[in-house]
Amino acid sequence: MNRPLEGIRVLDLTQAYSGPFCTMQLADMGAEVIKIEAPIGDQTRGWGPIKNNYSGYYAYVNRNKKGMVLNLKTEEGKQILRELIAKADIICENFKVGTFAKLGFPYEELKRINPRIIYGSISGFGITGPFSSRPAYDIIAQAMSGMIDVTGFPDQPGVKIGPSIGDNYSGAYLCLGILMALYQREKTGEGCRLDVAMVDTLFSVMENFVVAYTIGGEIPKRNGNVDPAIAPFATFHAKDGDFAMGCGTDKMWGILCGIMNTPQYIEDPRFKYNDDRCKNFKALEEIVNNWSTQHTVAEIDGILEKAGIPVGPINNIKQIAESEQIAARNMLWKVYDPGIKEEVRLPGCPIKIQGVEDNIQKAAPLLGEDTDAIMKDVLGYSDDQIKKMHDANACG
What we know:
By secondary structure, this protein is of the alpha/beta class. It is built from 17 helices and 13 strands.
């Protein structure tokens, strides 16, 4: 079966993580993604891990793409981009708001060149609002969205969530928006403008923290690994490490009490119902830890899993990467990377489509690897025209 986006052409002018993560998903699903870089290259080419003087970060988030260098400070480079826009379905960028327009490519111009073009952008704060002109990275979005303030333990300062989820979620949302726009275009024949802001994105996934304020009138506090609305729903101690448990119903609490040989707590008014257990979590935590510290993580995992209570060990990256589950789901893809000069394993795509090949088709491009081929195959340039563009410093 063909990949679902085969035949769709994407011009990818993004860099860092949020935009490339979006276009990576489109590329994984078969779109022809042309990554257009400035002559100095995407900033992630210098981000670690570095192996053989090449970025593993760049290799991950730019797989399955073609690579082209355009100098948009030259009129010739801009002309090449205009010609590509006329032949594209989608264009993505994550410049500081206003930068692409200053280069001569406001949405009105893109629409004039190609009325069917779908133009997607990611920025810290979106194209409207008082902060629209401010630059941002993920840590800024996590800070200003309220995410850092509710992450961590009550007696310590707030902390950034480890992965760059502001970038990741925003890239995923833009990808979703692009797919919606493609469907709409099938009906109307027209493209549209998509605007995703990282702060909007993180604010939208703050779930109970937002409604605790807007409906409950409370400013939520940090709770560490404890869910403030469900109990026992947290991490606990075992003899040889820690584990996570999600005891999400009163029925599960009764089962857990039976396993812990503490049936007296099933009807205890402090713990009988979920709201009671949340209010008395400190006492509840002590009861669970008194039982769990008598067993290993593996023993607890086996006991609770058999009883139907969601449970799992707290894995480090090596443990999850080398696990049978990741292997069974094909969530590490192998590809020979010409920059790193060896076969590497990269995180796979979590969207599995029956009948569609589940692997990397092409390693991330070397800087400008496909520039000449794109001008020849997509734009129909002759060898002489390509040489003139190189001589004009328009491409590389």
